[in-house]
């Protein structure tokens, strides 16, 4: 205890401290400004991305015509007479994405239906974290898996399969995005009001009928949004296709062959230490710009659909 | 005459119930499918790789001779990368979240920043790699050192860190802040002493999960040009480095040349997965331990 | 309650009230808050209309009225907490001890140090009991451990909760019962020794026993503090308050000594409300 027995007068003590407070108040006023500057980092990131991609892409189009780039079916950056058609890469990207969606859309959707409409609370609580684990596995591990396990496995079924091919990474990419579709679609389905389900159940509908005729139509835009996001994710995926699909710039529909995606091309060019200023170097940005625009449009579309969905209830 | 024929309904009902049951089984199998693949993947990796994990592997240098190769360099590289990523992304992530949740007025500016963050979250990681290569490695002339890689990764996981921190701050009930204001506390005092401590478990959980994303990411570092060469162990954020996923990448690529590299890749994957498991468990423990009490 | 009141003959009531009025005229307490023509809008919503009210020292002023009539809004205007809502706009004058609370030279934080507030739901911080009480003094720069110890004990004693918590000062405040939490919040408010304590339905989340304890505490506190209390409980208002203001649709319908309001309201609407005929 203090030596003198005077009672403490808090308000007096407080007003004595006022002097030191003034400095603190200046600091207090500066805080919103500091925080705003911190928050603007994310805006500068976007500006940075757009600026780098854009300015270098313009350099590229000074050397290669826009028409050749977007309509050319031949990509031969290293040959004597280089050709810079982006279509082989778009072909590779779209093919792997379609394969992935063929795997992920039905399985992801059925998983979502099971978890939202059929599973007991306990099963749901065990399965959801397990799916999260699946989603948390680094893509490099999936790439390894596609290359060393799925491709050899598929070779037993399809003898003509090349060591690097578009099929195997497509399938594995599909497996990778199952959790994404499942969890986003499940969210959409779970937010369908129970009253709608009960109405149908009371008429004697089975759970399947409730799911297909009530829940899925009601959650439709949410499900669509999850598909679009998954597509965008597949388009931007890099490591699986880089490892398992190789670098042949084939413009083909043959799934057993190696095809290169836009992302894999970027990896190949940067890994090859293309000298800054060369056409190859700039082509990297033109491809990245194409990739960026693709995924951005997908994401904007997904959010537009999802927002519409929210308004429905 | 009845409109509903009971017998007919009964027959149809049996049929509908059978369809329902079959569908349920198919849906269940779909749900299990992903997990079966997960099981196979983990089993494969472990059966191939576990035999290669020993003290020499964990503490050894990289080597072209599979028998001698170790991953200490990659482990250290991953750690050094986190030394950059963790503070940078926490500082900017939490700062942005505080600004958006507690300072920014509802309006155009705020929704612009918010939309921008949502869009950034959907940008492919390889595009961040290009940004990092162009800005940090070349324009700022850092070279492919830990700092350049770390800043790139920080930008990559910034959107998810921001969103997680925003959720954590939003979950702090208003009445705690009011109590503090009511005692004459200033806004910053209230944020620092009341709101942030209450939001901290949520913020940490989110931050750890985003860090584990950064630990597993490969593409941006490939683009930045992390060398496949045998480099000395990194000793600071200004050294060249490699990380676990990069090592997996190179060994997988070369496994068609040297078969043992596939096993080394498996062994490295085991280590990577264990690190991620450790981080995620920590996040879950934090989340459960500090479950909201107010 | 209404029955009990009508049992008293009308003449008797009047006589008592008159005596009361005479007595108060002699010892009118000093005014701490003087509200003149206060108007307040939430965006377009006109929530307070031409409020005129005096809050007196060493008295309990009760504010009653149906839900949504602006009681909490008025209370939160007195310590300017209402400004946390961005759309709020006010006109009129509120003087605290003769100085306008809207004056530029007066910082809100200073005002709130002198005008404490207790909320409807007990809202201790997720910290220890000790830290809850020490929080106010600490943010105002008092760091001396011995002084803080003394303030904590004094405040907890002041809120009559010291004996219940003195052995667990460093336990988390969420381990306390609801009633104890509310008294802790009152103690937290006492720790910065305000002049006025604003209480917004402080007992509505409490059981009857804890309610009585808090009421008892309020009666003790009024010896040193001006207290403004919002309540939906008529008995509570009549038990503990000296003056009562009846709010309706953002207006003060009637404001007078509590016994006058309860026994002989001049406005029909006040009478109807007190007798539970609406609201
Ligand atoms: N933040 C706000 N924004 C807009 N309007 C508000 C806000 N807070 C209160 N109001 C409106 O102002 C009016 C007065 O609200 P207030 O909370 O003061 O009522 P009250 O008398 O305390 O009610 P109760 O007894 O239910 O607590 C109400 O019509 C309410 O809808
Ligand atoms: Mg109220």
From TrEMBL, chain A:
A GO biological process held by the record: phosphate ion transport
Protein name per Swiss-Prot or TrEMBL: Phosphate transport system permease protein
Homology family: Belongs to the binding-protein-dependent transport system permease family. CysTW subfamily.
InterPro entries the record matches: MetI-like, MetI-like_sf, Phosphate_PstC
One cellular component (GO) term of this entry: plasma membrane
Organism superkingdom: Bacteria
PROSITE patterns assigned: ABC_TM1 (PS50928)
Domain ABC transmembrane type-1: 90-302
Protein task: Part of the binding-protein-dependent transport system for phosphate; probably responsible for the translocation of the substrate across the membrane.
Membrane topology: Multi-pass membrane protein
Record keywords: Cell membrane, Membrane, Phosphate transport, Transmembrane, Transmembrane helix, Transport
Intracellular or extracellular location(s): Cell membrane; Membrane
First-listed, main subcellular location of the protein, grouped into a coarse class: membrane
Membrane-spanning residues: 30-54, 86-109, 130-154, 166-189, 210-231, 280-302
Any GO MF annotation of the entry: phosphate transmembrane transporter activity
Organism: Cerasibacillus quisquiliarum
TrEMBL record, chain B:
InterPro entries reported for this sequence: MetI-like, MetI-like_sf, Phosphate_PstA
Transmembrane segments: 21-46, 71-100, 120-139, 145-164, 261-286
Signal peptide feature range: none
Gene3D superfamilies xrefs: MetI-like
Topology class, membrane: Multi-pass membrane protein
A GO MF label: phosphate transmembrane transporter activity
Subcellular location: Cell membrane
Main localization of the protein described in the UniProt heading: membrane
Pfam families the UniProt entry points to: BPD_transp_1
Positions of the ABC transmembrane type-1 domain: 75-282
Keyword DNA-binding part of the UniProt annotation: no
CDD domains xrefs: TM_PBP2
Alphabetically ordered keywords of this record: Cell membrane, Membrane, Transmembrane, Transmembrane helix, Transport
GO CC annotations, alphabetized: plasma membrane
PROSITE patterns referenced in this protein's UniProt entry, alphabetically: ABC_TM1 (PS50928)
Lineage top rank: taxon: Bacteria
GO annotation, biological process: phosphate ion transmembrane transport
Coiled coil: none
PANTHER family according to UniProt: PHOSPHATE TRANSPORT SYSTEM PERMEASE PROTEIN PSTA, PHOSPHATE TRANSPORT SYSTEM PERMEASE PROTEIN PSTA-RELATED
Family per similarity comment: Belongs to the binding-protein-dependent transport system permease family. CysTW subfamily.
UniProt name for this protein: Phosphate transport system permease protein PstA
TrEMBL record, chain C:
Domain of life: Bacteria
One GO BP: phosphate ion transmembrane transport
SMART domains from the UniProt entry: AAA (SM00382)
Statement: the UniProt record of this protein carries the keyword Translocase: no
Domain ABC transporter residue range list: 33-274
Gene Ontology cellular component annotations, sorted alphabetically: membrane
InterPro entries, alphabetized: AAA+_ATPase, ABC_transporter-like_ATP-bd, ABC_transporter-like_CS, P-loop_NTPase, PstB-like
GO molecular function: ATP binding; ATP hydrolysis activity; phosphate transmembrane transporter activity
Keyword ATP-binding found: yes
Keyword tags: ATP-binding, Nucleotide-binding, Transport
Protein name: Phosphate import ATP-binding protein PstB
Upper lineage: Bacteria, Bacillati, Bacillota, Bacilli, Bacillales
């Amino acid at each position: 205890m203090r030596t003198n027995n005077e009672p403490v007068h808090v308000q007096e003590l407080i007003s004595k401290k006022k002097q030191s407070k003034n400095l603190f108040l200046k600091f207090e006023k500066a805080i919103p400004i500091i925080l705003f500057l911190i928050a603007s980092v994310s805006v500068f990131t976007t500006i940075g991305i757009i600026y780098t991609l854009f300015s270098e892409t313009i350099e590229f189009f000074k050397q290669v015509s826009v028409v050749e780039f977007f309509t050319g079916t031949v990509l031969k950056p290293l040959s004597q007479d280089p050709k810079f058609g982006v279509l082989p890469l778009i072909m590779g990207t779209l093919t792997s994405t379609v394969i992935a969606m063929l795997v992920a859309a039905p399985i992801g959707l059925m998983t979502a239906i099971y978890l939202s409409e059929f599973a007991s609370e306990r099963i749901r609580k065990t399965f959801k974290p397990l799916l999260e684990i699946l989603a948390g596995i680094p893509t490099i591990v999936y790439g390894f898996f596609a290359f060393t396990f799925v491709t050899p496995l598929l070779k037993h079924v399809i003898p003509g399969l090349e060591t690097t091919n578009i099929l195997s990474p497509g399938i594995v990419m599909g497996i990778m995005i199952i959790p994404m579709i499942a969890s986003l679609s499940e969210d959409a389905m779970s937010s369908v009001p129970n009253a709608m389900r009960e109405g149908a159940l009371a008429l004697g509908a089975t759970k399947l009928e409730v799911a297909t005729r009530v829940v899925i139509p009601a959650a439709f835009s949410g499900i669509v949004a999850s598909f679009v996001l998954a597509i965008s994710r597949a388009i931007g995926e890099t490591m699986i296709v880089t490892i398992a699909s190789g670098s042949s710039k084939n413009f083909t529909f043959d799934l057993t062959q190696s095809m290169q995606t836009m992302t894999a091309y970027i990896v190949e060019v940067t890994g090859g230490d293309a000298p800054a200023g060369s056409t190859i170097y700039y082509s990297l940005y033109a491809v990245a710009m194409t990739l960026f625009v693709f995924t951005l449009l997908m994401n904007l579309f997904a959010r537009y659909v999802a927002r519409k969905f929210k308004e429905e209830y | 005459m009845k409109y509903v024929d009971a017998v007919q309904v009964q027959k149809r009902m049996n049929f509908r119930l059978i369809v329902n049951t079959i569908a349920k089984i198919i849906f269940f199998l779909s749900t299990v499918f992903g997990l079966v693949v997960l099981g196979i993947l983990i089993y494969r990796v472990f059966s191939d790789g576990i035999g290669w994990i020993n003290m020499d592997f964990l503490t050894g240098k990289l080597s072209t001779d599979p028998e001698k190769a170790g991953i200490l360099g990659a482990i250290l590289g991953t750690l050094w990368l986190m030394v950059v990523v963790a503070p940078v992304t926490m500082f900017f992530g939490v700062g942005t979240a505080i600004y958006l949740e507690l300072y920014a007025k509802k309006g155009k500016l705020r929704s612009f920043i918010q939309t921008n963050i949502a869009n950034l979250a959907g940008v492919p990681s390889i595009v961040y790699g290009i940004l990092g290569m162009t800005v940090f490695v070349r324009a700022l002339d850092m070279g492919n050192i830990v700092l350049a890689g770390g800043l790139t990764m920080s930008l990559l996981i910034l959107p998810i860190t921001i969103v997680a921190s925003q959720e954590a701050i939003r979950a702090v009930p208003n009445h705690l802040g009011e109590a503090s204001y009511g005692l004459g506390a200033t806004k910053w005092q209230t944020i620092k002493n009341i709101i942030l401590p209450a939001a901290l478990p949520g913020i940490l959980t989110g931050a750890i999960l985003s860090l584990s994303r950064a630990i597993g990411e490969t593409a941006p570092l490939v683009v930045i040009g992390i060398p496949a060469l045998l480099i000395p162990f990194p000793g600071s954020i200004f050294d060249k480095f490699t990380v676990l996923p990069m090592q997996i990448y190179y060994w997988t690529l070369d496994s068609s040349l040297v078969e043992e590299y596939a096993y080394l890749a498996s062994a490295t994957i085991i280590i990577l997965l264990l690190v991620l498991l450790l981080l995620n468990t920590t996040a879950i423990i934090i989340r459960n331990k500090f479950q909201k009490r107010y | 309650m209404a029955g009990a009141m009508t049992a008293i003959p009308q003449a008797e009531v009047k006589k008592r009230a008159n005596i009361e009025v005479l007595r108060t005229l002699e010892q009118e307490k000093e005014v701490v808050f003087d509200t003149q023509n206060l108007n307040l809008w939430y965006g377009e919503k006109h929530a307070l209309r031409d409020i005129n009210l005096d809050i007196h020292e060493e008295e309990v002023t009760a504010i009653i009225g149906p839900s949504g009539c602006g009681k909490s809004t008025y209370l939160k205007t007195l310590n300017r907490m209402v400004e946390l809502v961005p759309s709020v706009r006010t006109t009129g004058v509120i003087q605290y001890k003769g100085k306008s609370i809207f004056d530029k030279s007066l910082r809100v934080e200073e005002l709130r140090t002198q005008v404490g507030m207790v909320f409807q739901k007990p809202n201790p911080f997720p910290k220890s009991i000790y830290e809850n009480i020490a929080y106010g003094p600490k943010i105002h720069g008092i760091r001396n451990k011995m002084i803080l110890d003394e303030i904590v004990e004094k405040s907890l004693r002041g809120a009559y909760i010291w004996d219940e918590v003195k052995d667990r000062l460093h336990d988390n405040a969420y381990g306390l019962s609801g009633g104890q939490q509310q008294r802790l919040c009152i103690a937290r408010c006492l720790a910065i020794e305000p002049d006025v304590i604003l209480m917004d339905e402080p007992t509505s989340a409490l059981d009857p026993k804890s309610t009585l304890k808090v009421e008892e505490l309020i009666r003790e506190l009024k010896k040193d503090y001006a207290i403004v209390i919002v309540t939906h409980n008529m008995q509570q208002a009549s038990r503990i308050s000296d003056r009562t203001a009846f709010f309706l649709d953002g207006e003060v319908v009637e404001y007078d000594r509590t016994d006058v309001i309860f026994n002989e309201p001049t406005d029909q609407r006040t009478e109807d409300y007190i007798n539970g005929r609406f609201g």
